[in-house]
Q: What sequence folds into this?
């Protein structure tokens, strides 16, 4: 899994490497041009950059295609299109090949890809997995199996020979849709539906039909757990977007964690002692940095926390920690850009959303924002996941901002009718005063009716 969202698209197009298929050359040229057009739109709308590498005829050598593009991790090819001959070896499917100008690209050579591309092969019977040309459930062999084993996200090809014009149209429709954000399954389905000839039915998708290009899908930091790499990326991301944070969590925001909270959270993650210690130090340093930014008014933070989880946390930590927490919240509440809302939902849990922005404007500008979505990070869970997603699509940012606002409205409805549910800084002080009363009442309920803050305030 990648550690950060990709903001680029790399396309490689190979056409007529054997120099005997003029229609394949034409197809490759048109595919390359269509992809450049799509990349121009992505650059204009989302500042996503891309490149198209076109190799025609004699240029399509094994060194150029295999070594310089597919096996070089620095190239990071997202889409590979091949228009030319394809050879299926029924005696040894792993020896099936795609001819290049100076030799064959053997199937077994695809096992060493340095990238994870969508592979679209417009070659006769390039989807064949058995001598009789029948695709079936179960074991898959041939070029499809070799590319997927090597790390390709998906492999698309025809089961039988198709006409030049339908082949070109199916490919163009596929690229148009997948580069607009559709999944591989949606794109090939649309391509098959758009073509009136039976040739379109030859195309088979091997792989997960839900896969999209990396620029369109959120990226998971580090498998099911947020290990030290994920923690570093979270901190890096928050530093890249330092102006505003809108947060909805079931535990507590990092800014009010103490050392014991950090240690409990980190030690529940399956890491060795050295990596755990490094993560503890990184978190403690950032919590102090985070707090200083908020207290100085340099960063805006509006947090929604679950009352049920907060109540359980205070009960487990005791009256002394409760007093420390109240003092900490009071100190933060004096800052002009801090707001804390306690949500008393019937189901006890809230959807966890985090949205950060480079600027402190409220509401944030989607073009300068990114969202992080995490689940199951509560202290009391011994087995948790923390899925860090990044998305730079303004439409997606607006979507998550709307979901956050619904959570905020629902939470503030319990605070009283006088609250106008806006993100204006002028309402933070009133919200914090109400939150302070709720916190005090929660502690009184937990530690006795006569419980009062030890400081006597």
A:
């Amino acid at each position: 899994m990648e550690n950060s969202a990709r903001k680029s698209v790399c396309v490689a197009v190979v056409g007529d490497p054997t120099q005997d298929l003029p229609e394949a050359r034409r197809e490759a040229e048109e595919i390359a041009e269509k992809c450049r057009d799509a990349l121009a739109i992505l650059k204009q709308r989302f500042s996503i950059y891309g490149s198209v590498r076109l190799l025609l005829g004699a240029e399509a050598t094994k060194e150029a295609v295999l070594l310089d593009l597919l096996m070089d991790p620095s190239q990071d090819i997202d889409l590979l299109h091949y228009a030319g001959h394809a050879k299926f070896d029924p005696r040894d499917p792993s020896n099936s090949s795609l001819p290049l100008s100076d030799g064959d690209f053997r199937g077994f050579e695809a096992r060493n890809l340095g990238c994870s591309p969508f592979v679209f092969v417009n070659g006769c019977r390039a989807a064949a997995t058995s001598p009789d040309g029948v695709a079936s459930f179960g074991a898959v062999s041939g070029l499809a199996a070799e590319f997927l084993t090597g790390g390709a996200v998906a492999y698309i090809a025809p089961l039988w020979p198709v006409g030049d014009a339908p082949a070109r149209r199916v490919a163009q429709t596929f690229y148009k849709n997948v580069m607009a954000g559709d999944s591989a399954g949606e794109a090939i389905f649309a391509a098959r539906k758009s073509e009136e000839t039976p040739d379109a039915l030859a195309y088979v998708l091997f792989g997960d039909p839900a896969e999209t290009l990396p620029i369109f899908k959120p990226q998971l930091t580090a498998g099911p757990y947020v290990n030290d790499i994920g923690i570093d990326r979270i901190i890096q991301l928050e530093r890249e977007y330092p102006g505003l944070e809108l947060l909805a969590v079931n535990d507590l925001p990092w800014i009010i964690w103490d050392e014991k909270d950090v240690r409990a959270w980190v030690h529940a993650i399956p890491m060795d002692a050295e990596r755990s210690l490094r993560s503890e130090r990184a978190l403690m340093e950032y919590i102090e940095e985070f707090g200083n930014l908020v207290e100085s008014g340099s960063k805006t933070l509006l947090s929604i926390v679950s009352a049920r989880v907060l109540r359980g946390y205070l009960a487990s930590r005791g009256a002394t920690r409760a007093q420390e927490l109240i003092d900490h919240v009071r100190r933060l509440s004096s800052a002009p850009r801090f707001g804390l809302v306690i949500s008393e939902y019937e189901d006890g849990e809230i959807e966890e959303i985090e949205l950060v922005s480079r600027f402190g404007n409220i509401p944030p500008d989607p073009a300068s924002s990114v969202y992080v979505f995490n689940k199951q990070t509560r202290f009391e869970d011994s087995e948790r996941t923390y899925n860090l997603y990044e998305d730079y699509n303004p439409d997606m940012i607006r979507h998550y901002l709307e979901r956050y606002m619904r959570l905020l409205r629902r939470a503030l409805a319990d605070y009283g009718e006088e609250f106008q549910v806006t993100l204006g800084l002028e309402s933070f002080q009133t919200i914090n005063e109400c939150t302070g009363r709720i916190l005090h009442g929660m502690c009184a309920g937990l530690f006795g009716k006569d419980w009062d803050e030890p400081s006597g305030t």
In short: Residues 307-333 form the longest helix (27 residues).
